[in-house]
Amino acid sequence: MNKYELAVVVSAKLGEEERAAVIDKCKEYVVRFGGTVTEVKTDEAPRKLAYEIQKQKEAYYSFIQFESEDSETPVELENRIRLREDLLRFLCVRLDEA
Asked: How far apart, in whole angstroms, are the C-alpha atoms of residue 89 and residue 10?
């Protein structure tokens, strides 16, 4: 079982319910493509970005850790997330099993 972490940067312009819906949709994508969500960490307050992204200076960070036996899960996940306009940035990485 491979362990992964999906980091997403959500627009600060969205309301609390909309942000929660975006994170839920990301978790839904993980499950749809054969993964199991193990942990979700979400910021309570927006963080200042190092540089502007789409004319925004602040955003919310969320980290979704998941496991999957299928190596195609991260690829399919990134392909779906790339189409979402409410996410400013995302990154999916494989975690080392140290």
From this structure: 7
φ, ψ dihedrals at 25, nearest 5° = -65, -40
d(CA 75, CA 72): 5
Question: What is the domain count for the chain?
Answer: 1
Q: Helix, strand, or coil here: 37?
A: strand
- Residue 18 amino acid letter: E
Residue-wise pLDDT tens digits, 21-55: 999 999 999 999 999 999 999 988 999 999 999 89
What is the spatial distance between Cα 71 and Cα 85, in angstroms, rounded to a whole number? 26
Q: Which helix (H) or strand (E) element contains residue 93?
A: strand 87-94
Decide: helix, strand or coil at residue 68: strand
Q: Which domain holds residue 9?
A: 2-94
Identify the CATH number of the domain in which residue 48 sits. Answer: 3.30.70.60
CA geometry: angle at 89 spanning 76 and 74, to 5°? 20
Which two three-digit tokens encode residue 79?
Answer: 């392909």
